[in-house]
Each structure stands twice: as structure tokens, then as C-alpha cells.
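Exercise 7. Given the encoded structure of a 435-residue chain, write a plausible sequence.
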């Protein structure tokens, strides 16, 4: 179908991604990112900013047989292509090769097509190399991060290095969440709402800002037929992850079982048998591996696994263990469960403001965030993050305790440090000032 030109209401940020799309000089551009992150909205906004109303064509791929998929594309691109029926990819790509006008062609959910026709990347490689019309810009979108990586970033894949731009569309920040919903970024309840959905713009559409935090938790997660009740299943389906092992790992990690040895013990399996499933979940960004600040990923055996996505973290830490008893809890208990979850997300979000910051732990101590504070790499900033407002005297006591903790750590043998104490007000201010 042709994308109509006109202003988009409520479109926020994504200036970097729009800039890359607008300046693309190659025949092929690829966008990937988890479901509902805003890939389609991004290309729609890009389309709206084009000069000509009939220069951009969009199609949503179907799950089904090759003939059905090709027929849908043929219908959606009907005004661009000759009036010739097509039933397979060879015929369809030959039709695309006849186009003699400058245009942008967008295919959404590209992995659906590859699952049906595994040979499609090879056919598309030949088309991109030899038959793509000079004025055509093909943009392919996909939510399956493993498939998009295998198709475009695997050095042995046919389409490796064929895309001039590969754009990873990532979650948006707390700042834009508050702008989108017209919330006060300095308010605790604004962050409690954000902690339940994170930076996934589609989830923001489900939020009624007039609802209380507890009402929001019910409508998103705990009510029968709630908006996000089945979200983990959808994400696992996107990545073609089946079986109980991956689900069990997510359940355990979400409930705070973070060490590989503990995960294996809870599942009654050998730790070595989990290396494959853990790597798969990492590759799909459903979990992330943490190592202590300053240690090498290759040499350290100290690692923890965390769910960083706010929605998934809430689902496994709050919904899964409490849903059968949720309606029996008093309001104070419900709010405490949400606040405890938010405090973990708050520490994580603050740490993410600094590209090389990480937690640090060793036997008997843990530090919330450590980062370099000089170009020479000899001085550190050591942060203690608290999800509450602090009085000056409390801040001084925490700073002293954090400094003492650092002096007991192995880091003190190699670095000097500045200590900072970040309370709720400091952290919300910092998150709101982030790009």
C-alpha cells in the first residue's frame, strides 16, 4: 500500500534512526528490534517525511504459504508493479526489477517470509547485487533478533554486508515516557508506572494516566485478559524458542536466582547443560549477563544473569509469583511489590546512563555502580543508588559506608575513587536529562 504524507501525531524522538534512513545511499536498509518497540511507527514517520505521496510502498508480511505471502505483497505494491499475477519469489523479484521510478519499498516482519522460504535470502542476494533498480530503496523490518542477526550479520549468510544500514531500534527513555503521557518526571508514581512497561512505546498506549499505580498493574498484568498477560509467550514465539527449559530459566532469573550454579541446582540439571539455553536467551536479549566491573568476559567465572526488559522483569518478578494471591493482598502489600521491582529497575536505569558502568561484587560486599571518572583509567566514580529521598545526614552516612566498602574491595588496590550517593530525586533528575 502507498503511505500517505502528513504529520504524525505524538511521534517522539528517534531522530538518529530517522537521520540514518533519510541519508541511506545503498539499495538495502535493515531495521530490527523486539516486538512493539516502534519499528513500524519509525518507518511510517520516515515515509510521511518524504516529498512525494506516492513514492513509498509498505507491506506487512503474512505467516503462511509462499504463494499467499507473494500474493499479499503483489496486492500491497499493486500501484508500483505491472498487472501480472505472481505465485513465487522468482516471479515477484522479476517484477520488482521492472520498476523505473524512484521509490522506497518497505516489507515488515521479514522473518515470516524466510521461515516459509529458507532460500529467500539467497534469491534476494542475487536480486540486490544484480537486479535491484537504481532508484529503489528496500527497507526490511524484523522482530526476531536471532533471525535478523543470522540473515544479515552472520558472515556466512548470503545477505551479509548487503545492507548499507543495519539499525537496531532500542527502547526509549523515561524522559520520553513522561513527555508522551504528560506525567511529572520528578514524581515517584511516574517512575512506578514506567517500571512496569519500560521504554516500549506500544505499551505506553495501554496506560491511562488517570488510573492509580495499582489500577494500572491490574489492567496491564493481573486482570483476566489483561494487556500483557501473555507477553512472554509472544516474545518467545518471535524468537522461535520452544520447550520448558528456556521458560524455567526466565522464571528463576526473574525471581532473583541469578548465578548459573543456582539456576542449574533449582532445575536439577548439570550446569554445563545450561550453556546453550543461556546463550540463546542472551542472543535474543531476553536475559543479559553481568560480570563485576573491571573483569574480562573471557576470563572471569563470576557472572550473574538478569532480565533487563522492564515488562519481562515485572512479569516474572511480580505477576508470576503473586498472581494467584494478588486479589487477597492489601493495597500496602501490592504497592510494596511494585516498589521493590521499581527500585531494581531504577538502579539499572541509572547505571545505563553511563556506557561503561557496571555493578561490582566480591565476597562480603556489593557496589551498585562503578565507572571510570578520568581518561587515564586510574580513578573511579563509585555510586550507591537509593530508591527514596534522603536527608543530608542520611546521605553522609551512606557515603561514608560506601567509601569504607570500596576500601575493603580489591578495586582499592588499583584505583582511587569519588563516592556519589544517588537518591530518588537525583536519579529521576538524571533520567529526565538523558537524551
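Solution.
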Amino acid at each position: 500500500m502507498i503511505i500517505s504524507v502528513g504529520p504524525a501525531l505524538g511521534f517522539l524522538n528517534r531522530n538518529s534512526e530517522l537521520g540514518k534512513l533519510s541519508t541511506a545511499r545503498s539499495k538495502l536498509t535493515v531495521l530490527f528490534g523486539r516486538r512493539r518497540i516502534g519499528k513500524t511507527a519509525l518507518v511510517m514517520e520516515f515515509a510521511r517525511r518524504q516529498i512525494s505521496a506516492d513514492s513509498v510502498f509498505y507491506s506487512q508480511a503474512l505467516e503462511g504459504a509462499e504463494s499467499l505471502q507473494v500474493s499479499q505483497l503483489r496486492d500491497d505494491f499493486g500501484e508500483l508493479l505491472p498487472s501480472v499475477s505472481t505465485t513465487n519469489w522468482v516471479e515477484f523479484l522479476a517484477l520488482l526489477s521492472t520498476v523505473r521510478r524512484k521509490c522506497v519499498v518497505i516489507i515488515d516482519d521479514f522473518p515470516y517470509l524466510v521461515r516459509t522460504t529458507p532460500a529467500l535470502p539467497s534469491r534476494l542476494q542475487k536480486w540486490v547485487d544484480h537486479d535491484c533498480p537504481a532508484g529503489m530503496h528496500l527497507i526490511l523490518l524484523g522482530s526476531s533478533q536471532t533471525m535478523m542477526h543470522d540473515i544479515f550479520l552472520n558472515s556466512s549468510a548470503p545477505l551479509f554486508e548487503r545492507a548499507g544500514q543495519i539499525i537496531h531500534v532500542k527502547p526509549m527513555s523515561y524522559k520520553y515516557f513522561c513527555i508522551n503521557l504528560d506525567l511529572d518526571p520528578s514524581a515517584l508514581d511516574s517512575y512506578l508506572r514506567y517500571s512496569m512497561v519500560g521504554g516500549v512505546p506500544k505499551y505506553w498506549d495501554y496506560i491511562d494516566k488517570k488510573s492509580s499505580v495499582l489500577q494500572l498493574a491490574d489492567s496491564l498484568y493481573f486482570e483476566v485478559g489483561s494487556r500483557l498477560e501473555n507477553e512472554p509467550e509472544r516474545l518467545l514465539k518471535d524468537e522461535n524458542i520452544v520447550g520448558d527449559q528456556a521458560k524455567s530459566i526466565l522464571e528463576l532469573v526473574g525471581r532473583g536466582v541469578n548465578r548459573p550454579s543456582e539456576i542449574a541446582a533449582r532445575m536439577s540439571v548439570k550446569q554445563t547443560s545450561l550453556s546453550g539455553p543461556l546463550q540463546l536467551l542472551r542472543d535474543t536479549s531476553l536475559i543479559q549477563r553481568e560480570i563485576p566491573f573491571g573483569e574480562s568476559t573471557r576470563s572471569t567465572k563470576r557472572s550473574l544473569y538478569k532480565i533487563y526488559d522492564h515488562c519481562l522483569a515485572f512479569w516474572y518478578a511480580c505477576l508470576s509469583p503473586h498472581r494467584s494471591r494478588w486479589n487477597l493482598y492489601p493495597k500496602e502489600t501490592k504497592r510494596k511489590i511494585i516498589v521493590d521491582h521499581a527500585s531494581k529497575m531504577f538502579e539499572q536505569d541509572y547505571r545505563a546512563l553511563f556506557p561503561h558502568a557496571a555493578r561490582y561484587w566480591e565476597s562480603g560486599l556489593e557496589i551498585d555502580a562503578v565507572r571510570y571518572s578520568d581518561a587515564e583509567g586510574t580513578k573511579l566514580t563509585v555510586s550507591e543508588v537509593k530508591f527514596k529521598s534522603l536527608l543530608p545526614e542520611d546521605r553522609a552516612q551512606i557515603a561514608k559506608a560506601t567509601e569504607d566498602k570500596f576500601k575493603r574491595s580489591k578495586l582499592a588496590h588499583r584505583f582511587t575513587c569519588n563516592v556519589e550517593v544517588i537518591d530518588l530525586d537525583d536519579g529521576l533528575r538524571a533520567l529526565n536529562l538523558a537524551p
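Remark. Residues 358-433 form one domain. Students should compare their own answers with the one above.
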